[in-house]
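Supplementary Methods. Inverse-folding protocol.

Structures were first reduced to a C-alpha cell string of length 401. This string, shown here, constituted the complete conditioning input.
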C-alpha cells in the first residue's frame, strides 16, 4: 500500500518540551499517577494509534546533555519504570501496542527479557521494547558497578570515534540477541497440563540458550513460557551510521529523525545499505520517522504557545518540529509517507493537550486524506506491522531445519 503509513506516539512525562509542565492544560501533580497514564494511553488507543512508546532513564537527569541536568529545578524530575507501567496499562487497553524504553547497560538481560515476555502475556501480544545503548555518568554512579563508559558524543560527533560508545552498542546487540533467544527457549507446546498423568511440562520443549558473549553469558531457559508474539517487538532510535547498523542488525523497527522528507530519503538509503551488510532477520527493517508536534487551531496560536515554551526553557532536538495546525501536521505526514517510511512516531510537545489534538484532529484528517494504513484487525502488534510470528529457533534445530 504505497504512501500509506502507520502512526505511533511517544509519551514522556508532561510532554516533549521541557517547559510543558507549566502549561495551563498540564497535570504536573499527576505525572506519577496510574490514572494519568491510563488516560493518555486510552486517548491514543481511541484514536487508532498503532503503538505508544514510553520513555525511561536510570537517573534524574535522564539522557539530557545539559551539564546541570541532575541538579536543575525547572525540569520535570521523577518517573515511573516504563516496563512496569506498560504492564499496568496492558489490561486497561485492548488494541494499542505498548513499547517501553529500556537502557541496556545496567539491567540484567535475563530480567529485561522476562519482563518483556510478561508484558506480552499481559497485553495478549502487544508488547515491545525500545533499547537504548550505553549510559550516562550519573546512571553508572547509581548502579556503582562500572567505573568507565561513554561520556557523551566525542568532539567529532561520531559514535565510531569513541571506543566506549562502540562497546555500548556491541553490548546492546548482545542484549537484543538474548531477549530473542530467551523468548525462543520455550516452544509453543511446552506446557502440557495433563491432569490424568500429572504431567504439566514437556521438559524436552524447554531449551537452555547457552549464550556466551563479550559482556555476559546465560546458560538456562526463561522462567516465562513462550508469549503470544513469540518474540517481543524490538525497536531502537538511530541518528547516525553506527546506530543505523545496530538497528539493521538487531531491531524489527527503527525510529529516525529526518529534518525533512528529503533527508528521510538519504537515511532510508543508508539503512538499506546497513541491512544489506549485517541483517540476518527474515523481515525487512520497519522505519518510523519521528516528528515533534504542537497543534493549535491556528498557526498564530501555535506559534504563540511555542514562543512561550521556548522563553521558559529552550528545546534542542534533531527531530523534525511542526508547530501549527492539524493540517500542517497532515502535510508533514504526507511528505514523509511519500519519502518511503513505514510509519511516523509523533512526539507531543505537551501532554495531554497535543495528544488530544492528535486524536481529535490529526488522525481523522490523515485518515480522510488516505495517508494512514487501515486497521487490518490482526491480533498482535507484530501482525499489524506485517511481521510474522517467529518460530522458536530451538524447535527448528530439533527438526533439522
Amino acid at each position: 500500500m504505497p504512501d500509506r503509513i502507520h502512526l505511533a506516539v511517544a509519551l514522556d512525562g508532561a510532554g516533549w518540551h521541557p517547559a510543558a509542565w507549566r502549561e495551563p492544560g498540564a497535570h504536573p501533580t499527576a505525572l506519577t499517577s496510574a490514572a494519568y497514564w491510563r488516560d493518555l494511553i486510552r486517548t491514543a488507543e481511541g484514536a487508532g494509534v498503532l503503538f505508544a512508546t514510553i520513555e525511561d532513564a536510570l537517573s534524574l537527569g535522564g539522557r539530557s546533555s545539559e551539564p546541570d541536568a541532575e541538579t536543575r529545578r525547572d525540569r520535570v524530575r521523577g518517573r515511573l519504570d516504563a516496563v512496569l507501567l506498560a504492564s499496568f496499562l496492558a489490561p486497561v487497553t485492548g488494541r494499542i501496542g505498548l513499547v517501553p524504553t529500556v537502557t541496556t547497560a545496567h539491567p540484567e538481560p535475563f530480567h529485561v527479557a522476562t519482563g518483556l515476555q510478561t508484558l506480552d502475556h499481559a497485553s495478549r501480544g502487544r508488547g515491545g521494547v525500545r533499547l537504548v545503548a550505553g549510559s550516562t555518568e550519573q546512571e553508572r554512579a547509581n548502579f556503582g558497578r562500572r567505573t568507565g563508559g561513554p561520556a557523551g558524543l566525542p568532539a567529532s560527533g561520531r559514535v565510531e570515534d569513541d571506543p566506549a560508545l562502540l562497546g555500548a552498542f556491541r553490548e546492546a546487540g548482545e542484549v537484543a540477541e538474548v531477549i530473542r533467544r530467551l523468548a525462543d527457549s520455550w516452544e509453543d507446546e511446552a506446557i502440557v497440563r495433563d491432569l490424568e498423568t500429572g504431567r504439566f511440562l514437556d521438559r524436552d520443549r524447554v531449551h537452555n540458550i547457552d549464550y556466551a558473549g563479550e559482556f555476559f553469558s546465560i546458560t538456562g531457559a526463561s522462567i516465562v513460557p513462550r508469549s503470544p508474539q513469540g518474540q517481543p517487538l524490538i525497536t531502537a532510535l538511530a541518528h547516525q551510521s553506527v546506530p543505523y547498523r545496530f538497528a539493521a542488525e538487531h531491531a524489527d523497527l527503527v525510529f529516525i529523525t529526518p529534518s525533512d522528507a528529503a533527508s528521510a530519503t538519504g537515511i532510508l538509503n543508508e539503512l538499506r545499505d546497513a541491512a544489506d551488510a549485517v541483517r540476518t532477520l527474515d523481515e525487512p527493517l520497519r522505519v518510523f520517522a519521528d516528528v515533534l508536534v504542537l497543534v493549535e487551531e491556528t498557526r498564530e496560536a501555535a506559534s504563540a504557545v511555542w514562543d512561550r515554551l521556548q522563553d521558559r526553557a529552550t528545546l534542542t532536538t534533531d527531530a523534525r518540529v511542526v508547530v501549527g495546525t492539524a493540517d500542517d501536521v497532515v502535510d508533514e505526514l504526507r511528505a514523509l509517507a511519500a519519502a518511503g517510511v513505514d510509519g511516523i512516531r509523533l512526539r507531543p510537545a505537551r501532554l495531554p493537550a497535543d495528544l488530544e489534538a492528535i486524536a481529535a484532529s490529526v488522525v481523522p484528517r490523515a485518515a480522510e486524506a488516505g495517508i494512514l494504513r487501515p486497521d487490518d484487525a490482526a491480533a498482535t502488534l507484530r501482525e499489524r506491522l506485517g511481521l510474522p510470528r517467529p518460530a522458536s529457533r530451538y524447535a527448528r534445530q530439533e527438526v533439522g531445519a
